[in-house]
Batch of 3 targets.
Target 1
Amino acid sequence: MADRASHRAGPWGEAWARVVRRPGAACALAWLGVVAFFAALAPVIASGHPLVWTQRGADGAARRTFPLVEHLSAWDLVLAVGVPIAAVVLALPGRALGATRGERWRWVVASGIQAGITVAVCGLARAVLGEASAVTAGVIAAVVGGAGWLLPIVGRPGARAVMAVAVALGCVAACHLGSRVPLVDFDRYAQAEASGGATGVYTLIPWSPGQGRTDWYVKPPGWRVEAERGAASGGGAGGGRVFVLGTDALGRDVLSQMLHACRLSISIGLVSTGIAVAIGVTLGALMGFFGGWVDAVLMRLVEVVMAIPVLFLLIVAVGVLPTEWRTTHALMVVIGCVSWTGAARFTRAEFMKLRGQEFVLAARAAGLPLRSVLGRHILPNAVTPVLVDASFAVAAAILAEATLSYLGLGPPEQASWGALLAGATGTVGDFVWWLAIFPGGAIFLTVLSYNLVGEALRDAMDPRRRARTDLA
Amino acid sequence: MLHYVIRRLLLMVPTLVGISLVVFLLVGLAPGGVGAALRGAGTGGGGAGGGGAASFDAGTRAAMEAYLDERYGLADPVLVQYGRWLARVSPIKFGPRDLVAPDGEVVRRPGAVREPPAWRLFADALPRGTGEAERSGGAAGGADTPAAFARLRAAHATARAAATRTRGELEAALVAYARAAGLPEPADADGRLRPGIFEGRAPRADLPEWAVARIAAEAALSAFAEAERTRGALLAAFDRGPLPSAGFWVLPGLVSVASPDLGVAFSKNRPVSALMAEALPVTLLLNLLALPFIYLVAIPGGALAAARAGTWVDGALGGLFVALWSVPAVWAGVLAVGFLASERHLGLFPASGLHAAGADAMAFLPGPGVDGGWEAGYLLDLLWHVCLPVACLAYGGFAVLSKQTRAAMLETMGRDHVRTARAKGLGPREVLLRHVLRNSLLPLITMFVSVFPAMLSGSVVIERVFSVPGMGSLMIDAIQMRDREVLLAGVLMVGGVNVLALLLADVLYAAADPRVTLG
């Protein structure tokens, strides 16, 4: 019974089932799910903006506004709407929506790539063209993002077209609605409430990551803000609100920063590994398939990059960037560009093994173009070790980001676990235990989770190991 | 064996050249170039980026930029800069040999002084007498003592700095004049004057900017003449050899061999080689102490896991080591400093540095101190200080090595000689220790290679957390000051150490296993 089910799911589905069966890997996936949840929804869960803001005018009429929603950026909107939809689509049982779960996974991945490209291009186009040509920017972004659907991973043309249009419309709308207010004065809410003219309903964690006051610096977990003078009740003027995990040296809430930092960690891990795998697979395929001088030259390059310990290369590459260039995107590119050697070596070995096999020779003898031989015939058979290794690579990338942020080389003005950890020693002169335990623990659990998933995946994909563990 | 080692050492050369090229391109091609980064660091103070430069007036800023251009040769393309750096670092030099100052600094022949921009506009302001006349005259000057030579060097350095400064000021003044004269786009994005912009235009002397430019030009031209004069004198002195020459001739007059010149670190105003000589041993000490520690834990751990393969012991050990492997070095360091070293908590270990305050006065070995009481001595003091850093470097390696030990032992267990040993009635303990473990140890010799690069990376953070003055601390200081020479030399050194470790592993393996022949 189980065999038939796994047979139907294909090799990846089967491997997945084996991974989930291991308790360690299952716990790891659960933790990653939690991190991903906060990565998507942190701006809605932890914000200094009130959810509902009721302002009483001079004539006594109450006006309701929703500052939290108004202050969400385009990325926040897309993630807050898209990720729950994707989660529901994936969680539906059996052949819901007329597709197997594998197909629905492909939909989600393709839509995610399209949405990412669209929002990034839209932001870039607005920055380059200026706010006036917002429509042009939207059209450009929609077209470029639509190119994400050239990836041949979704089978049905009809479903493809519907989804592409929906995602494009949604993303461009989010770009128009998204807030671009860079600086926000959170104190005005407290002041308005203190004067009694307004009331706000806040989220569970009523702090934004950048919101801090110097008189709140380095407060221990559970510290409660004193109600300010003139407040109507204990709930007014920020009084009675709690810093669940304490504050840092600038008086900012640690929990809120940690939740917002989930997105940085997850996105840097995934995107930089994606870049590394793309570079590594391309170069490794060339090396392994052609051999000869191509192999010799590129292998020297691999040796050179491997000879430099990764962190040295990273701190030089990131350190020489001017501060205004040191953004999340730059960090992703840099980490991706120094960590491709593993993927290149794995791909090279697989291509060398496969290039002499009968099915490849047959494809070449049939006169197929090189693109087809490499991409359609060899690559799908060679990609397993790279994808298994990618899980460890994500862990390494998250570690690299945390370390760089700890050293003060991370993106400035952005909440990061590593930067929080750096506040544990040094800035205040004394050891701040809540800045050491919580952010460090989050880095550790996330890295451990990716490593556990990687181990489970490796065991599941390797028939020799599988035989051993199954017997045991 | 010797042939093999020599060949591998020669093969290291292209790798090291590649490493330096990669790093140089990284530094040179960063947005705005290293020039922008340097200008930001030089004017705005640590890491403030390009913003700081705006706080100076145009003349000061131009002078500063001219100084940086002069010092690093930034006006040339990146590859030319790289070639120049490589020629300096290469142990094989062409042309006349450099001199070595008593403090070990390599003294090179002074290069040409860049002439002021558009100086032909002000040809009538040229002072009389050029450097060429002085050069022959200086030869007769006598006094070839090192002290006299040092005076000549100092004079030239001062004159050169003045020439560079006035040149920068003249450039800024000319840009202002060209703007006022309505010339299209007088400066490029970096604020540098476009060459040839005044071609075929008569100067407009009626503009007030022209008068300013003229004053700047007079200063620049006379400073240039002075720099050329002192350079001539210095060159003449150079040929008479007041200091010992660097290295020795291979082909007299053409090719010489000298120790690599890594340049001078501007942030510390010391030769980079001296900084490296202090920092590299510290990093190596930490790593070499951590290695045996890793072996001591990982081999028994791996052996135990292999002996109990498939049981809960195996699983628990595997899980424990993977967990340790996932602990970020930063976190481990911070926790160790905070809980084990901090006075507020346990205070068991020193929190920073390599030595206690009075360590230099201590005897090497423990014994009775000066005041009659017991004294730990230099060695014990050092070991006590490196305890935590070494532990933080080591724990990550357990997972890799114990996993490899386990795999090697499981493989050996299936061999014929183990079956024979079992068949002749040896106990399981005997078989495991004498027949399996011994024969599995051979691959372990090379295993340190798989953890060594990660340990070198880890030592960057560990040194930072524990304030240990090693390569990592040096590199991070250099990054904050954008000190190019230290960055390049540091990465080159660490890469070289790494490649040497690879070679050492291969040689050790061949030495331990008679079946392996290198060649």
Note: The radius of gyration of chain B is 31 Å.
Target 2
Amino acid sequence: MSAFEEKQSLLNWYCPLPQLDFDRILLGHGSGGLLTNKLLEAGVFELLNNEWLAQKHDGAILDLEGRMAFSTDSFVVSPLFFPGGNIGELAVNGTVNDLAMCGALPRYLSLGFILEEGFPMRDFWEILLSIRKSCALAGVNVVTGDTKVVERGKGDGIFINTTGIGPLHPQASIQSARVVPGDRVIVSGPVAAHGMAILSVREGLQFESTITSDTRALHRPVKALLDVLGQEVHLLRDPTRGGVATTLNEIARDRRLGVALEQSSLPIDEVVESACEILGLDPLYVANEGIFIAIVSESTAADALAILKTLPETSGAAVIGEIVADHPGQVLLKSRIGGKRVVGMLPGEQLPRIC
Amino acid sequence: MKYLSEYRDPQLVGQYLDEIHEIVTRPWSIMEVCGGQTHGLVKNGILNLLPPQINMIHGPGCPVCVTPLHLIDKAVHLALDKGVILCSYGDMVRVPGSKMSLLEAKANGADIRILYSPLESLKLAQEYPGREVVFFAVGFETTAPANALAVIQASLLGLKNFSILTSHVLVPPAMEAVLNDETAKIDGFLAAGHVCAIMGLSEYGPLVEKYQVPIVVTGFEPVDLLQGILMTVRQLEQGVAALENQYSRVVKAEGNPQAVEVIHKVFEVSDREWRGIGNIPGSGYELRPEFRGYDAMVKFEVDIPKAPEHPDCIAGLVLKGIKKPQQCPQFGKGCTPSSPFGAPMVSSEGACAAYYHFQAVEIG
């Protein structure tokens, strides 16, 4: 069986919740004794088994050489389950993507859980299944981890931390210092899907069309870009919380350069755009989980776009703007009708308008 | 969805802009009443596309901005000290009270829920029969029908643990207060489209007659705003004063009679204090006596001292269009969206917040 076929069979094989004598997480499951072992054996190790976890050691021994990227992220999303995925997918893809943004190929992950007493085992199982699936799709392994349980009321069901490591692409030279006027700003796909998918399941909001989260691993498109363009890729960032606007503002401030955006070039699904309109939210500030921003040299922008458009993860890529020497530290948007406005940093959470 | 793209058509926008540029011969100050219209002008970068003779003055149509400081303090008090579930529209929670905003109260342990509709607070009241649920009923006439409906539903359900903290304000009295203020020189108005969708046009004819100013009921998309401005400028250049309806696809002369009926069933007109402006007679809604049981101010004894506004905040002058935000000495210095002195710097529809984001754009 080829590696691909093996992956496919893994994905197609439905794994039912094993027979356990507990249906909820108990405080004892985090205290390191018999209950902990029961949970890990029946849950984590059952699904995520590999040569490292099989050692059941306090840490994983890895064979690494050369320059590495190393990144961590914690996941506290609420609700835990949403159209297009759950916290498990986010936990894997989030760190995989952080490593990809450094120009690295993700290889190994650590996985830490903080579970709330009373958390249903059925939900934990589903999240573990998602973690397994996402790891398989991304080609990464969870090699070490930890499980803690906190008292009821002291957690939000489950919090997850993942930390990842992987070798740097030999052609990668990703640094914000390399961003210069003339560079083009590319977004790898339509914006605002994840944030609106989350909002759509929160109580009181029911849209007729389902908006699904865009969570996905992005290291393959990144590798494709670096393979061909190498050092012409100046910066990569994934616009998660705070959206595209926040990420671009951070870059503008950091580099004391301006960013000029074209609203008419911003890719967004019609359903997502409508949902933003109804709620009075600006899609530029809504969270994303499956797109990245690439800042590339002016001469390679067309090639970069062409490469991304051939890949399924990034077929909706578009050039949305340019780095300029004007208005340093600020992001300016040219609206569809030709007017200009500043796209600033939000002071806090974006709140829907009253009227 | 067609409406969105048609009323954002760059070609049509260009046409209207060209005509405005062609016909304007002298300076005109036009007030767009509604905060949503301010938002539309800023969001689409329209302000610097207009000819320099057109001075757009941002009106007091931001219900968040005009909710009195004292009422916010009362809401904070109810949530923190009386332990109610305080429900609010999103924009309200960041507005500073004299000690803290509702968002800060939340961080201090208050149970604050951000809702999209007052009917959700009814669900909460049913879900938590042992807790008091208070809905912060803020808004112009636009949100009054939904708030009235919530009270009617509560009464039909026999809910004993639900009440509203009313902060309803009305547009025509506010426009009249602006027109009566000699320091505010407004030549024409873009009336608030959604308020008129509810209330109709009948209150605006008398204002046109009395003050001889053009009033054009206007929508919110770029084409709406520019068409409304064009219609106003045409009148001004011709020296006429009339009531016109640009937003005719949504606004009917009689408004929404069912919504008006629901409002009048539950609310009656009362005097109301506007933050930064002061008391404007007959400019608000209060619950009618038969519904006073749902009035949080009647239900809960809230005896807290009235705190003064920040001494450096000139929100009142900004809301009446007498001063522009950047004329405030604290603008962008002590007072910013993350550390606001007053409401217009916080609300996404507030003039100060709009200018804070817009003012850095010195582009031809």
Note: Chain A touches chain B at residues 203-205, 270, 274, 277, 279-280, 282, 327, 330, 332-344, 347-348, 351-355 (CB under 8 Å).
Target 3
Amino acid sequence: MDFLVGITVLLCYQLIGEVLVLLSGIPVPGPVVGMVLLLLTLLARGKSAESLDGASTSLLSHLSLLFVPAGVGAMLHFQRIGSEWLPISVALVVSTLLTLVITALVMRSLLSLRARGGSASD
Amino acid sequence: MTETGLSTLWVYLSASPLLGLIITLLAYILSYHLYEAANRNPLLNPVALAMLILMALLFVTDTPYSTYFEGAQFVHFLLGPATVALAVPLYQQFSKLRALWPVILASILTGVFVATLSAVGIAWLLGGTPETLLSLAPKSVTTPVAMGISETIGGLPSLTAVMVVVTGILGAVFGTRIFDAMGIERDDVRGLAMGVAAHGIGTARAFQVSHQMGAFSGLAMALSAMATALLLPWLLGMLGLVS
């Protein structure tokens, strides 16, 4: 029963998110709005619920399975991927590695700046 | 069973969504077991493996993707509630998030700019067509969000979905190795960079490393999805790629 309650809560927040996006026309997908609203609700309540924790954990622990159907859609685009394999593959590999490296470097230097600033002002 | 019996059975099964759903689950379970058996070697990424098995299966049986997706959509649909579910690890890590928010925000915005501009720029330099450039732009964002963005800016949502999945696999396969080579040990830094670059697939990998890395990856994935959805149409407009 707990799982059922948890998943229903998640679906309701998704629905609220989708409806808000439709009504307001903001260019953000509905599930993201639903996530923000759920976070705000949890912060306002000051605690989560066991049913919600359980449903979230089970959904997120199989997160990578959920990407499989969309990935298989590659077969729809074999022709385009074949004729543009060079720009697509280089862009994907280089951009993903650059993003990993630069984001980690920026965060690490900001953290050490902050730590130094903090100890200097003490 | 007679041959006509068998072919009637196949006609029935191949038209039923049940088969698409079951082969998705079986291919993933099999891939996951292989991944575990290989000591979680990131090169045997279960998403990539399951995709290859399923594409081979559909190719051999001459099944169109739309028929397969009739069943697989039930799995695909769960991406929506899974995105909402990210609020829970976010909430659990909120005290850390609040203490570090200027650092987190600046790092995520940097990552979003690097991810989108480098992908579009590299593909453009190498002669990619406009539809391909637009489909690549949201590649570091989780699938349901990326497909929505792709549609808004005039890309091909189903092509974007593929780019997103490949990006995620690349991040999951190489992420931890790159961080080791760079000497980055803090799980919050590793998680955040993983979530910005490789969304949900990177986050799934991060949760296998530690709960903190997973939570920061989930946080980064959620915030970068929001930032990309808000900034990308404007950014591409500045570049003259969308009107």
Note: Chain B has two domains: 3-77, 83-238.
